[in-house]
Design a protein that fits this description.
Blueprint (H helix, E strand, L loop, with lengths): L1 H25 L10 H18 L5 H18 L4 H13 L1 H17 L1 H5 L17 E3 L6 E4 L7 E7 L9 E12 L6 E9 L4 E8 L3 E7 L7 E10 L10 E13 L13 H4 L5 H5 L4 H9 L1
Antiparallel strand pairs: 1-9, 2-9, 3-8, 4-7, 4-9, 5-6, 5-8
Helix pairs in contact: 2-3, 2-5
Length: 301
């Protein structure tokens, strides 16, 4: 009986292995006329880096020119025509599971480059080296790279930040990210939304719309009476009135959620009385920089 049991178990293992092989062999591959996943990953990685560099220019016209010039330079580097790249991107866009796998790998590569990229992103870079503690701290713990499409479930990225012992009454916050749009047609409209719940369960909401590539910020002022309990938010890519199937992608990268500690005004304390007894010819001159109340006390002596 034991021999038959082992034989039966071995047969099941072999059958399962054969089923896996057959299943994998039946998985349709990407048609040869389109760029293969590893090629798309490499091109999109270089595309992203090039657009980050283009965004550093001062004027919108110069930025637009540089973005297109760098885009063509990336295609030339990889020996791909614009038509081939567009058709391949549309194919992956229509096959969301394949696109998702590409962007999982792409996100890892981009996050590995985060230190180098942070020094090149203008105003957003001033928070790139912050730790999660201190008076000014980057408390973001989620992925720093998100890809959105207008179709669910990939049109929304939600997050929650729970307050800990480092939070204080009066703390303010700033949500930062770099937005990059890749659209064939249609109006670009992404939404960043933040809801802050306080200890008394009151809620303040803050929202901004993003329609152009570049640095986006959403500032949340401090509450001078209540401590923060939780912060909920999301990034959402709106389809708008355009129901076409044309390519619409938004990349949010270098994501930060910065906490600012309210700095208290310095407390002025009167000098000790025995320090006022020792007066001399020039003591009043030396003390004139102190608060007026101290100077008045000296004159009464």
């Amino acid at each position: 009986m034991k021999h038959r049991s082992r034989h039966s178990a071995g047969g099941r293992i072999v059958a399962a292995a054969l089923f896996a092989v057959v299943t994998l062999s039946c998985t349709p591959s990407v048609p040869d006329k389109y760029l293969q996943p590893d090629e798309m990953e490499d091109i999109l990685f270089d595309y992203y880096l090039s657009q980050a560099v283009a965004n550093q220019t001062q004027t919108r016209a110069q930025t637009a020119y540089n973005r297109y010039a760098y885009y063509n330079a990336v295609l030339k580097k990889h020996g791909v025509t614009e038509a081939d790249f567009d058709s391949s991107l549309v194919y992956y866009y229509a096959n969301a599971d394949r696109l998702y796998e590409i962007y999982k790998k792409l996100a890892e590569r981009i996050e590995d480059e985060a230190t180098g990229l942070g020094a090149s992103f203008g105003d957003i870079s001033q928070f790139s080296t912050l730790s999660a503690s201190g008076d000014t701290a980057n408390i973001w713990q989620e992925s720093q790279f998100v890809m959105l499409t207008p179709a669910p479930p990939n049109n929304k990225f939600c997050f929650t930040i729970k307050a800990d012992t480092t939070f204080r009454v009066g703390d303010s916050f700033q949500f930062n990210f770099m937005a990059d749009f890749m659209y064939q047609a249609g109006t670009k409209d992404a939404v960043a939304y933040i809801a802050v719940r306080y200890a008394n369960d009151s809620v303040s909401t803050h929202v901004t719309h993003v329609g152009v590539s570049g640095i986006s910020r959403l500032r949340i002022p401090g509450n001078q009476k209540e401590k923060v309990k939780t912060i909920d938010g999301f990034l959402y890519l709106n389809r708008g009135n355009d129901d076409s199937k044309t390519l619409k992608l938004m990349f949010a990268s270098q994501i930060q959620f910065v906490k600012f500690r309210q700095k208290s005004a310095p407390v002025l304390r009167p000098a000790k009385r025995d320090s006022l007894v020792k007066t001399g010819p020039d003591s009043l001159e030396r003390m004139s920089d102190r608060p007026q109340a101290v100077v008045t006390t000296i004159r009464k002596k």
